[in-house]
Amino acid sequence: MAMTSPLDEPPADLALGAFSDTPPWDLTGKPLPWRAGVSSLRTATALAVPKLLSRRLFPPGRRVVVTGLRLGWAILAWRLVERRQAAKLGRREISRAGLSRRLRRAFERLGPTYIKLGQILSSGEGVFPPELVAEFKLCRDRVPPEPFKVVREVVEADLGRPLEEVFSYFEPAPIAAASIAQVHAARLASGEEVVVKVQRPQVEPLVRHDIAAMSWLAPLLIGRIPVASLANPPALVELFAETIVEELDFRLEADNMLDIAAVLVGTGQKAVVVPRPHPELVTQRVLVMERLDGFSWDDVEGMHQAGIDTSAVVRALMIAFLEGATLFGVFHGDLHGGNLLVRPDGRVALLDYGITGRLDERRRIAFLRLLMGGTLNDTRLQLVGLRDLGAVPPDTDLEALAADLGLDKPVVDPTTMDPEALLAEVRELTKRLLAYGAKFPKILMLFVKDLLFLDGSLATLAPDVDLFAEVAGVAAYFTTRYGERIAHDIGVDPRQHAIDISGVRAAVGVTDEVEALTYRDLQARRELIRRRMEEHARRSARTRARRWPQLTRRR
To answer: What is the pLDDT of residues 307-316, one digit of tens each?
Structure first.
């Protein structure tokens, strides 16, 4: 096996992927036996999902009873306590927080599959309610690790050799423990420092039973959980099933690593690195990979002390993410702080490829239309992109949709609206979208979730950067570098149009008179709206409380 290249020669496999400059092994010319048949494996995995989600006449076994009792008790207790308390005080956040807390506890008792669902919810800031996100973040740190004896058994069974034949050192305590797997630091017998991802035993059949149970119960929850993002539990279960089933085979994850590394090389992206999977030590339940170190994503002070430009870090990750999705149809589908390290040289180490967005050509071009439509303020181009992604039915009249949603009207600053008018606007918009059959496809949710994570990262890594200038800079980058290709793909040449971020201003609720907006400014605006909405809810509750005795006397 090739060792680290001499300092005056870059590693040969940097032509294959965006890897570190000091490789523990060189992937050039390696046969990668675990990669054989991955394409067929990926297809078979996708075909298995509809079978798991198929509606059964009778409950699928004892598991559905246990799940129903856990979730049912959580919802009943919430109705009896927090919902009543919230109604009495006029504070809806008490109700949402109480429901989120009880659901999180139920998920933890139900085990790995539900903890994984909670972890996915926890990384959906902006997609799911803040109380739900904050509560389920606790799931990230509350998964007890498997005993080392069990880990040894899995590793030896999958690699077909005693642990000591493969590793000279294997840390018994994991450096991370998640619902599907845990990660251990180790050293190969040949001397390379690695990390080893080991799947929990019996997790695969448990996941499949749980998905069957979720699918049977989900329709019964419609209308019973007053959280907007969970108003369609069956769709959420379908999304979750498509996501988690792919994570049950680490050969798919290793393949994702190589594909995304190749995309980064194809774009000339130098700011993001991918750990190298081992050429041979990859199986369904064991993944040995290069160990990468760096600052944690939220260690802003440490990065600044090391002289790292954190604004540049976020910008580079944003560009790499958009290039992957819109130009190559492959992107990391689960960006969150736990999956990112910032190396001393300012490059981002991107970890954990269990969830990866993969787009066929039609959907890739749809995302490209969304991106270009946003930077050119072309509403129709954006709506065509959403239609082609499946967010609205294919026969939707896009002009009528734009008119019904008021996209042709002047921007109204939400901070100037009274709470009642703002609530009415949101309700009406939601009603109109549902009337058009709007939905949130899996791939769009992964994309939006990642964008919202990057947006939130600005709060800590680049709070004083002008958001409009950043958007314009990214648009100029794509126009200059990929203008010809974009024109070929979508029939619109961005080089022939001026960048117009009026639509971006409209999305955050400011008029064209606002020339600059930092993330601090945006947070202040959101906080103002939140306080007004809460005060409105409290006033409404007090009004209802005063009217109740009068109504009772009239009766």
So the answer is: 999 999 999 9
